[in-house]
Specification:
Layout: H1 2-12, E1 21-28, H2 41-55, E2 63-70, H3 79-82, H4 86-95, E3 102-106, H5 108-116, E4 122-124, H6 133-154
Parallel strand pairs: 1-2, 1-3, 3-4
Length: 155
């Protein structure tokens, strides 16, 4: 009977529960926009990285999530506020974090906060600093290489 109940519980869970999640983590929201919104230069480059991972690395079965560490619309000025590890815990709650998630942190500030909180992540530079088409292509390729290396080391 217990085996049947476990099977029934699995059947009731949505498909995404069983699929690998890749979560991009930026810094903060822009007023009136979604997290890492596709209307921004940063969001557009993250979309291109996601597209590359889905189709060039054949990860179309993965779930890709765009998020920001700080659930605020303006960059905080107080350094103690910025470097507080409680923000990582708050972020984990917001995205329903699982240790199986693959985290891609964007930019020095987010990279450091996640490192200090001892959350494994793939560390990338912040996409807003990438302007030229050539540098964007380099950024996407670098992201794919780091993702592949991370995935191979985690197996």
């Amino acid at each position: 009977m217990d085996g049947n109940l476990a099977m029934a519980n699995q059947l009731e869970q949505p498909d995404w529960v069983h699929r690998q999640r890749v979560i991009f983590v930026g810094v903060h929201n822009k007023p009136g926009m979604l997290e890492l919104d596709s209307k921004t230069r940063t969001g557009k480059l993250v979309d291109r990285v996601i597209n590359w991972l889905q189709y060039e690395l054949n990860l179309s079965g993965f779930i890709f999530i765009k998020s920001n560490l700080f659930d605020i619309e303006y960059w905080p000025k107080n350094q103690t506020f910025v470097l507080n590890n409680q923000w990582v815990e708050h972020w984990k709650d917001r995205v329903n974090y699982s240790s199986n998630d693959i985290i891609i942190t964007l930019g020095h500030t987010v990279n450091e906060i996640f490192r200090k909180a001892k959350v494994k992540s793939i560390k990338l530079g912040h996409p807003s600093a990438v302007w030229s088409k050539e540098k964007q292509e380099d950024y996407i390729l670098n992201a794919a290489i780091k993702f592949s290396e991370y995935s191979n080391n985690e197996r």
